[in-house]
Amino acid sequence: MKKLLVWALPLVVVACGQPTKTPSASSLDQRVDSLLSLMTLEEKVGQLTLYTSDYDVTGPTMRAQYKEDIKSGKVGAIFNAVGADYTRNLQKMAVEETRLGIPLLFGYDVVHGHQTIFPIPLGESCTWDLEAMKLSAQIAAKEAAAQGLHWTFAPMVDISRDPRWGRVMEGGGEDHYLGSLIAKAKVEGFQGENLQDTHTILSCIKHYAAYGAPQAGREYHTVDMSDRVLREVYLLPYKAGIDAGAATVMTSFNEVDGVPATGSKYLMNDILRKEWGFNGFVVTDYTAIMELLHHGYAADTAHAAQLAIEAGVDMDMQAGFYQDKLVELVKSGRVSESLIDESVRRILRQKFMLGLFEDPYRYSDTAREQAWLMSAEHLEAARDISRKSIVLLENKNNTLPLSSAIQRIALIGPLADSKRDMIGAWSAAGDGNKAVSLREGLMARYPKATIAYAQGCAIDSPDKSGFSEALQVAKNSEVVILALGEAAQMSGEAASRTSIQLPGAQQALMDELRKLGKPLIVVLSNGRPLDLSTLSQQADALVETWFLGTMAGHAIADVLSGDYNPSGKLTMTFPRNLGQIPIHYNMKNTGRPRDVDPNGKYTSRYLDVENSPLYPFGYGLSYTQFSYSNMQLDKESATAKDTLRVQLTVKNTGSRQGEEIVQLYVRDWVGSVTRPVKELKGFQKISLAAGEEKTVVFTLPISDLSFYRQDMSFGTEPGGYEVYVGRNAEDVQGLRFQLLE
Ligand code: GLC
């Protein structure tokens, strides 16, 4: 087939070699329109189709049919194709064997690292360190781009308040204020200043919308909530990512208020494009267009394709419904070709923005691939953010840090010697075999100690036959480090649990070891808040390490040894038990609040457990202590145009340096709708030497107190407010102020 070289197009001036800057919008639009004008309807529909590469033991492979689709211009993007050579070969098919030579877009789930794997996002969010979270995205982008990738399906910014849902591991916790800041940091990290740079990639805000609120925490289940809660909580991180310039958005599998997101004009057009001004492209989640049939929202394939394209969905991931039906729908007049053109424009714009028309092979570079993957610099950055992700939950009698002089350590438990589990779910191109296990981390940190290991039990089995060996090992030690938790694949997609207990015989193993009276340090690796009510009583020290990624073992040893003083704080509430779910810090007061009549029968409470969580949002201990004092407001009353200045003194009253995440919350005591008892409105992570004190100052624009009032208008309301500062959502001190008309 004689191919019309795209770069022969009028108005397309090809810069030799590396393009140096993002083309201006007008020239970009001209180039897009110029190319669009040459495309057949079939070629246009091809740009709206995304298919997966496959894997076999040798690595990514491409089904024969997909190769034919690429050569015939029926597919415009491929995901799960990784590697400079492999992507180059696929790209050559598109560029050299199709009529117009339009380059492919290569996407992949680079969620928390590419080959250097960082902590799962829920763990990373506990650093509250936006610069660190941006850096990990930058490194991930650099490594992904070195392997031919242009686009990551990340960040996942779904708010969730339900630990039964497996994908809480993938998000930034329960709070939309923090979640929005993380979304911004991640988009900036992935996309950088200029998408022309070959170490930046397109980001993808997912899963739009409210995927994190499935009924009963059951994966893919129904989402139903008021428009007020949708807008005030769940939509904010998506909007923050889009405001940060996210290039793409992914639709969620779930329905919202009866309409599947993938067919929702309200979400995809009214809010996303008209209200928020999003000008990138929308891709569905995996076969989500086909799932409109299962939802009972589309009657057949053609109807599903029509609903999706009319809703504003630009690219069909893996269903093939656009490829199968859009040409026919346009030719029959059921769908306007202008809709197709709009979607094609949005996709071509991103391909131009990446510089793929100047050089379609610019990301498939074996030299960069060898230089940048898992470099020492990247691994050190991973170790740093991993140790900052660790949350110290208990440390009775200063059991930790462990002295370097310790001689005999018993290391027990199903997560103690695991490498694969350390990289968690959604670790894409990561290789678990390259991860540092806790055992390896401890051996490196305590080279003179005897570290006796026994698994004790499996992660998720009732078998207790390993207990006796574990007990014997423990008896001969000075201290027991017990590594418990979940398997990596017990969280992530399609991994909801009806129990948040430690799986298998792990609690039974803990019960037996507790009887020995040895110092017991429990190290947790898990992808969700667990019910730690018993464990928290039994453990002398309890350390939440999530799944920390490639450098897990070293990062945990850094904390257990005190080489690094833990600073992480929870971004998701830990309930006392399953029955409390959903439980989150920013709940409503109700008409019969417990604290009005603490011993009263007729108050909002349970018969069998107190209302407070086991560990609240924002909770985390340090090896030192911090005092909070001298809280002041610069005004006792304010107007909506004012800014409130809040200050306090934080002092490190302990004996060693430490970092503290100082949190700022606000309560609106009376509103035209009821208001949460607290809302996070600021935080600062400060480092203090032993004995050092610092004046911490927050400036709070009163406009930040805006909300959707009873008539759904967005703004502030006069009345009494309280500002809190504290070390977590429960441990705060407050001062009131009046917001005037
Ligand atoms: C999955 C996930 C989504 C991911 C996509 C491609 O089903 O829901 O997060 O990006 O498929 O792997």
Structural features, described:
The chain has 21 helices and 28 strands. The strands form 8 sheets. It has a 6-stranded mixed beta sheet with strand order 13-18-17-16-14-15, with helices on both faces. Strands 6-5-4-1-12 form a 5-stranded parallel beta sheet. A 5-stranded mixed beta sheet has the order 20-28-27-22-23, with no helix packed on it. The protein folds into 3 domains: 15-369, TIM Barrel; 388-580, Rossmann fold (3-Layer(aba) Sandwich), CATH 3.40.50.1700; 626-739, Immunoglobulin-like (Sandwich). Helix 20 (533-538) links the parallel strand 17 (520-525) and strand 18. With 741 residues, the protein is an alpha/beta fold. The protein binds alpha-D-glucopyranose. Alpha-D-glucopyranose (GLC) binds at residues 109, 153, 206, 285-286, 493.
- Distinct compounds present: alpha-D-glucopyranose
Overall CATH class of the largest domain: Alpha Beta
- According to CATH, the homologous superfamily of the largest domain is Glycoside hydrolase, family 3, N-terminal domain
CATH topology type of the largest domain = TIM Barrel
Helical residue percent band: 25-40%
Reading side by side through the largest sheet, how are the strands ordered? 13-18-17-16-14-15
Low-pLDDT sequence parts: 10-20
Rg estimate, integer Å: 27 Å
**Assembly annotation:** single chain
Bin the strand percentage: 15-25%
Total helical elements: 21
Report how far apart the termini are: 72 Å
Global outline: globular
